[in-house]
Design a protein that fits this description.
The chain is an alpha+beta fold. It contains 17 helices and 18 strands. Bound molecules: flavin-adenine dinucleotide. Flavin-adenine dinucleotide binds next to strand 3, helix 7 and strand 10.
Length: 474
C-alpha cells in the first residue's frame, strides 16, 4: 500500500522540489507548527533561510527544505515530528550539517537543532551534558580552560550528534576509545513524539553508540564522561621526496607506536606541478625528542618539512584543527583490519599515480585506529569496527565550475581506486564517512550488528519516518 507520505513526496522525496512548482502540494498549516514551537519557523525567503539550509557538502546544496523548524527544546522537536507526520511531510534532523552524503538535506521539513547547544557540567562525576545541536566547538568553548576532553573531531563545526551517533574518531581514540564510548546517556525523541531518557540497558542506548544519525529518532541531549587531558606534542610534517618509501616505513613505525600517539597519514595525489607528497599529522603524549627517536627510520629516508611542538591540550587541538569550509567532495572509506604491508602500499601508490590530475585535489588518507578503539567487542555497541589498525579514506574534491565530463572521469577514478583498496583492507566502511555510492553498505557499516539494528528499527520506527538513502532498513 502506498502511504500518504510516499504519495505526496515520492519514495525518496525526490519529487518535492518539483511538486510545489506544479502546484500539486496541498497548502500546509505552517502557522499551526509555528504556534507549537518555542523556537522559530523559517520558510523559504525568510531571514537566514539560505545559510541555515546549506549543507557542508555543496554537492547536495540544491535540495532545499520547504520549512526549517529551529527547535529550542525536546518539546519543539516532538511537535515538529508530529506536525510533519500529520501532514505527510518528510523530515530530517540537522545538527552540524556535515553529512558526507547530504543526508541532513530534505525537500520537506528540516528540524534544526543548532539552537540547542547548552552545556551543563557535573564536576562531581565529570559528566558533561550538551544540547543535541552542539558541535565540536561547543565542547571546546566550555572545556578549554578545564583540561577535560572527550574524543572529539578536528573540525569545529561538525555536530556532536552525527559524530557520536556514528562512532566518532579523533586523535584521542587510541588512548581513550571513540566518542561513542564516552556517551553515558542521551535524550531522544522517537517517531511517535515520545521523549526518552536513555541509559545503559536501553536498546536505543546501545544503538546510539554507533548506528549513525538520522536512523531512530532525534537526540536532544548527549551526556559524556569526560577525562583529564594534559599537554600534547603535536606534529605536522610533509615529505616531498621518496614518498612511497617514506609511507611504507611510516606505517610500519606507527603500527608499533604506543596508544598515546594519534595520527593521520595522507598520501596526496600528484598535481600538474608536484609529485605525490606524504603528510603526517597528529599528537603524542611524549616529548618532541621521543617523537624524533620513534620516527628515526623515516627521517633516515628523507627529511620532512613542517613543525613539531608541545602545547597545552586545547592549544594543541587548535594546531590540529581543520576549518571544514563547505566544498564539493566525495570520500570512500574502508577499515584496514590488518597491517598495511608492502603489497598494500604498492596498490595505494599505483592508484594515486592513476589520478587524472584534473579535479581540485585528491588524497589517500589513513587515520590510525587500534588501541582503545578495539577494547570493546564488536557487539558491545552498535559501532562494530573493533579490530582495525587503520581507517582509510580516498578523498576527491572538485569545484563548482568543474565540467561534468571531468567530474565523471574523476569519480570513475575514485571508484576504480576504491575497488582495489577494499579487498586488501578487509574491514568494513565507516558509517560517519557515509558513502552514497557504496553498494554493500548495510554489511560494510554494521557487520554482525545489522540484524539487531533492523529489529530495533522495525520496533521504534515501523513506518520509516526517519528515512534517507542509507537508513537502517525495516
Ligand atoms: C570537515 C569534516 C570533518 C569531519 N571530521 C570528523 C572527525 O574528526 N571524526 C569523525 O568521526 N567524523 C568526522 N567527520 C564526519 C562526521 O562525523 C559525519 O559527517 C557526521 O555525520 C556529521 O554530523 P553533523 O551533525 O555535523 O551532520 P548532519 O548533517 O547535521 O547530520 C548527520 C546525520 O545525523 C542526523 N542528525 C543530525 N542531528 C541529529 C540529532 N540531533 N539526532 C539524531 N540524528 C541527527 C542527520 O539527519 C543526518 O542523517 C567530519 C566531516 C566533515 C565534513
Amino acid at each position: 500500500m502506498i502511504d500518504r507520505r510516499a504519495f505526496l513526496f515520492g519514495a525518496a522525496g525526490a519529487a518535492v522540489l518539483a511538486t510545489p512548482l506544479m502546484g500539486a502540494i496541498p497548502r500546509l498549516p505552517w502557522d499551526a507548527l509555528a504556534k507549537r514551537l518555542s523556537g522559530t519557523l523559517v520558510r523559504p525567503g525568510g531571514s537566514d533561510f539560505a545559510a541555515l539550509a546549506q549543507p557542508n557538502n555543496l554537492r547536495y546544496a540544491a535540495r532545499l527544505p520547504i520549512g526549517i523548524a529551529r527547535c529550542r527544546n525536546a518539546h519543539d522537536v516532538s511537535a515538529s515530528i508530529l506536525w510533519a507526520r500529520e501532514h505527510g511531510v518528510p523530515l530530517v534532523a540537522r545538527s552540524g550539517g556535515h553529512s558526507y552524503a547530504g543526508y541532513s538535506t530534505t525537500g520537506g521539513l528540516m528540524i534544526d537543532m543548532r539552537e540547542m547547544d547548552a552545556v551543563a557540567f557535573d564536576a562531581s562525576t565529570g559528566i558533561a551534558t550538551l544540547g543535541g545541536g552542539s558541535r565540536n566547538a561547543t565542547f571546546e568553548a566550555y572545556f578549554k580552560n578545564r583540561n577535560l576532553a572527550i574524543t572529539h573531531g578536528r573540525c569545529p563545526s561538525v555536530g556532536l550528534a552525527g559524530l557520536a551517533l556514528g562512532g566518532g574518531i579523533g586523535f584521542n581514540m587510541r588512548a581513550h576509545g571513540i566518542t561513542a564510548d564516552h556517551l553515558v546517556a542521551t535524550e531522544m525523541v522517537t517517531a511517535d513524539g515520545a521523549i526518552h531518557r536513555l541509559r545503559d540497558g536501553d536498546e536505543l542506548m546501545w544503538a546510539a553508540r554507533g548506528a549513525g544519525g538520522g536512523n531512530f529518532g532525534i537526540n536532544t541531549s548527549f551526556s559524556f564522561q569526560t577525562y583529564d587531558v594534559g599537554p600534547r606534542t603535536v606534529f605536522n610534517l610533509t615529505w616531498s621526496t621518496k614518498p612511497e618509501e617514506v609511507f611504507a616505513r611510516l606505517v610500519t613505525v606507527l603500527e608499533r607506536a604506543p596508544h598515546t600517539l594519534g595520527s593521520k597519514v595522507s598520501a596526496v595525489a600528484p598535481t600538474a606541478s608536484s609529485g605525490i607528497q606524504v603528510q603526517l599529522l597528529g599528537q603524542f603524549e611524549g616529548t618532541p625528542a621521543d617523537l624524533r627517536e620513534m620516527l628515526a627510520d623515516v627521517y633516515a629516508i628523507a627529511e620532512p618539512s613542517g613543525s613539531v611542538g608541545t602545547k597545552p591540550y586545547w592549544e594543541a587541538q587548535a594546531f590540529l584543527a581543520e576549518p571544514g569550509t563547505p566544498a564539493y567532495w566525495q570520500e570512500r572509506s574502508r577499515f584496514f583490519d590488518q597491517p598495511i604491508d608492502h603489497r598494500a602500499v604498492a596498490t595505494i601508490f599505483d592508484g594515486l599515480r592513476r589520478y587524472p590530475k584534473t579535479a581540485h585535489e585528491a588524497a589517500f588518507k589513513i587515520f590510525q585506529t587500534g588501541g582503545h578503539v578495539n577494547a570493546r567487542k564488536p557487539g558491545e555497541t552498535a559501532f562494530v569496527h573493533r579490530k582495525s589498525l587503520w581507517l582509510s579514506s580516498i578523498e576527491l574534491y572538485w569545484q563548482q565550475n568543474t565540467p561534468d565530463a571531468v567530474l565523471r572521469q574523476n569519480l570513475a577514478w575514485l571508484d576504480a581506486y576504491y575497488e582495489t583498496i577494499a579487498p586488501i583492507a578487509k574491514g568494513g566502511a565507516y558509517q560517519n564517512f557515509i558513502d552514497p555510492s557504496l553498494v554493500d553498505w548495510k554489511n560494510a557499516y554494521y557487520g554482525g550488528n545489522l540484524d539487531r539494528l533492523v529489529a530495533l528499527k522495525r520496533r521504534v520506527d515501523p513506518t520509516g519516518v526517519f528515512a534517507f538513502g542509507e537508513a537502517i532498513p525495516r
